[in-house]
């Protein structure tokens, strides 16, 4: 039989952010027949909202070793060095690929990339496009590439479940225009983003309801590190939450309290450019100290005499959002507060996106590749989506042709039966906003045993009240509930503080952290 006569391997990619789009393009280039499904339109993904940029080693004075060291340090030592090596070594190729696809990263008049500095980077290596519209520029170019490719696209298709038969992923069950539809494929890739909608305050769009992680759990896939939820330090505390990129602090903006005092240096010698979890907690404590009034981000010194022109040119998206709210950040500090931003944990994968279920892959924020540990380095998320999306797309057709499908090894987790139930005081009925408030209050920037138990008991009660899901919102609620329970269980298991997981009842130690081995590959 000639190669042309062979039936191509079929794959479905669920999700249309950078990770899903890159996976789809690479899988199609490797010969797979790819269908990409997304629950809204292609362009509607978290990627579109990324501002600061994408970190990669693109300058002679920089090095992969420096990017690796920064990523490991920000991760509170819990990132997997092998995974981070892959990330920083392959990042530059992915950037060149994005450029070839038409992403117009900002450049100097001489044609060099403009570079931004963000927290915990020892070198200004963050590329950006349209000033602070990097994600939008990348999403637009990748969507155009997918539309021009052989990838079949189904929009408004909600993932109900991964179809598993004989221990292998065999496709997906979808809800499309109110009807159930089953797609049978050799491989399934989950690229549905994170779980920002678990929280009352988030930078994430409404589509970030943990659908892929919940489906992976139902399919029997292992998850890890779900206790590590990143809270972005600076979200506009006026009107709808709006991200104010870390790049603004990278350009020199400072954080002050009500009395005008800079407080970030109280928490860390790097002040405003300390790792994100440190700055977020410093802001949250300042807000608590001043009776709930937001902290202030002072950008009035940026750009010298032409502050207004500088801010509008360097940060046009934020500038517009600030001004829409009737504020003038060239003239006065703006109110900011932390909000849930990114899930470091997710579905356990090896370095090619393979989960513990044969035929099932996870990429981007849905995946736990090991590159982020307990706290993600700023602007490493778009990079992770591109690097591991490409690796996944490159191998899945070949994996399907192997006699034994390779899978990742599950990571051990500590037992969770050491915690005692406490009487639930939250007798509130379930609603999405009640769930989000519960998570914000008890599973937020600071946690303790009592609050976590209260959250766990409430979630257990809500889960036991069976509701027949009918609408997409109902299915999303089920997903959020399921993943919330996993996040809380993971947070209870990790009894000490590390990175973004801060236990107020054990602030000074790493506690009983589960071991963090590399997810190796085995065949099954
Ligand atoms: C930001 O621009 O501050 C967000 C970038 C990121 O989440 O890495």
Q: Over all CA atoms, what is the radius of gyration?
A: 22 Å
Distance between the termini: 27 Å
Number of separate helices: 14
Stretches with pLDDT under 50, minimum 5 residues: 416-421, 510-524
- In order across it, which strands form the biggest sheet? 6-2-1-10-17
Helix share bin: 25-40%
The largest β sheet comes out as: 5 strands, parallel
* Coarse shape: globular
CATH architecture of the largest domain: 3-Layer(bba) Sandwich
CATH homologous superfamily assignment of the largest domain: FAD/NAD(P)-binding domain
Secondary-structure-based class equals: alpha/beta
Mean pLDDT across residues:
92
As a percent range, the share of strand residues is: 15-25%
The count of strands amounts to 20
Enumerate the distinct ligands: succinic acid
Count of separate structural domains:
3
